[in-house]
Design brief:
Blueprint (H helix, E strand, L loop, with lengths): L2 E3 L4 E6 L2 E6 L18 H5 L2 H4 L5 H18 L3 H9 L5 E6 L6 H4 L7 E6 L15 H12 L4 E7 L3 H8 L2 H6 L3 H5 L3 H10 L5 H20 L3 H8 L4 E8 L4 E6 L4 E4 L2 H9 L1
Parallel strand pairs: 4-5, 4-6, 6-7
Antiparallel strand pairs: 1-2, 2-3, 7-8, 8-9
Helix pairs in contact: 10-11
This protein binds zinc ion.
Length: 277
């Protein structure tokens, strides 16, 4: 039975082993999840109201509120656009980006749903093509993007202050001891690390990191070419590979120019030049 919680101006309903707290004057949505009671996640269902309102739910409430904003401000006004997207995706660009929460390429490039086929992992690395019985998630994603979706561009999207690259450079023993998979994963850029330590051995750590972030992008670009269906398409002009490096401090992106073996600030003219060249 519904009951009023004294002093809180909230209606508390116990149903289906869950307790939902409804604001009296607000819309009839649960104040915990803002959806109908059936949408409450199992953890929230089991938690007591005092825990539900605690700090741990703040991030999820923010996500839920953000989604509702998207639903109202973006989805509803562009219903036809999303109806078309529901039928099929036709992205022209695939990206390999870092999982870092600060560096979301879709946000940074003002992209829309359907624009980018996104692959994210620690340190935005591409492993070399390996035909064995292991589960190759990155390779499978690339295969789908290139062969099924026929993307025209693949961008390896690196960034400054990359924790993965720093762990690789400093060979952080904590990383190796406390993590089962990261150390081996980062070894994809082991050769880039060796090149960096030789070229910048007397430089401060910040300089070495900056260089390794870019060398790792170049390694991933090289590894992309070890996949025959990528190499073939690059050779006949159906596919182009790009390396971008984003700096969170300056808010700028530098683009790898292979013909000069250096990174230059992103401009529309430079992108057009690389696309035509
Ligand atoms: Zn990173």
């Amino acid at each position: 039975m519904p009951r009023w919680r004294q002093g809180q101006r909230r209606l508390v309903i116990a149903a289906a082993n869950a307790t939902h707290t409804f604001r009296i004057a607000a819309s009839p949505a649960c104040s915990v999840c803002r959806f109908s009671p059936s949408c409450i996640p199992p953890d929230a269902v089991r938690a007591k109201p005092s825990k539900i309102k605690g700090r741990t739910t703040v991030p999820l409430r923010k996500l839920a509120a953000g989604f509702l904003d998207f639903q109202r401000d973006t989805f509803a006004p562009k219903r036809q656009f999303f109806d078309q997207l529901a039928q099929k995706q036709e992205p022209k660009v695939a990206m390999i980006a870092c999982s870092d929460s600060r560096v979301d390429p879709a946000i940074l490039t003002n992209s829309e749903s359907g624009d980018i086929f996104m692959v994210r992992n620690v340190a935005n690395l591409v492993p070399p093509c390996a035909r064995d019985e292991e589960k190759h998630g990155i390779s499978a994603a690339l295969e789908f993007a290139v062969i099924a979706l026929e993307v025209q561009h693949i961008i390896v999207f690196g960034h400054a202050n990359c924790g993965g690259i720093k762990a690789l450079l400093t060979n952080d023993p904590t990383t190796a001891e406390e993590h089962e998979f990261i150390h081996n994963w980062l070894d994809i850029a082991g050769e880039a690390r060796r090149r960096t330590l030789i070229a910048a051995r007397n430089q401060p750590l910040e300089v070495q990191l900056h260089k390794l972030e870019r060398e790792a992008i170049k390694t991933s670009l090289s590894n992309l070419l070890t996949f025959p269906w990528i190499e073939q398409r690059v050779r006949d002009g159906r596919l182009r590979l790009h390396g971008w490096h984003f700096d969170l401090h300056s808010g700028s992106i530098d683009v790898y120019v292979a013909s000069e073996d250096r990174f230059l600030p992103l401009t529309i003219d430079l992108i057009a030049e690389l696309q035509d060249g």
